[in-house]
Amino acid sequence: MTDLHTHILPCIDDGSIGPSTSGLMLARLAEQGVDTVAFTPHFYPDGMPAETFLRRRERSFASIRDRIPPGLSVCCGAEVAISRSLPGSSLLPQLCIGATGLLLLELPENGPFAGWMLETAAALRDRQGVTPVLAHPERCAFLRRRFALARAFAEAGCLFQVNAASLFNRRRRFVHRLLKAGYVQFLGSDCHNLNSRPPMYQEAYAAITKRAGDVLLDCIARV
To answer: What is the dihedral of CA 29, 31, 36, 40, to 10 degrees?
Structure first.
């Protein structure tokens, strides 16, 4: 099983506060049967040069190399806030998850929809050969209000990653609607710490596969 979305890298965003916490988070995921973890710290293109982010990510990763449990595969990526500038970035491949060509793309949680967002998602695929994966679309208010927009992003070539916790909270009905439509390809814990947002994967994986069966691909290695 692959956890596509985590904030385990320490001291780089609002996730893990240090290498010790990161090691415990990784151990907990391994105990839950996860065998591949993607490190996806937040990246805001309009607030920081990509080169600066990538240097910070490498330093953070280096600080936990010796804390990765044996047998657990890891790779780096980013949770990238959508920006008009993204399709023109030469560093997009380094922001993708490992060598998959998947870019975890975050839409605004409460802001309004703008047409350029859909255009940007399509341009990532058409101009850069990158496949956008919408991070936790169930948290995006305009998608919940207008399901046709979820369909539009899917038709533009976007894949969808839902959060494990969303299978059990107030957003679960929208998640089930996405599943029924066949839009969900990936599950992620979106874990940030060991308390308020801990690694929570196994229970959600069982729930989502029971409801959706093969709809949940969970298959970075095959992409």
So the answer is: 10
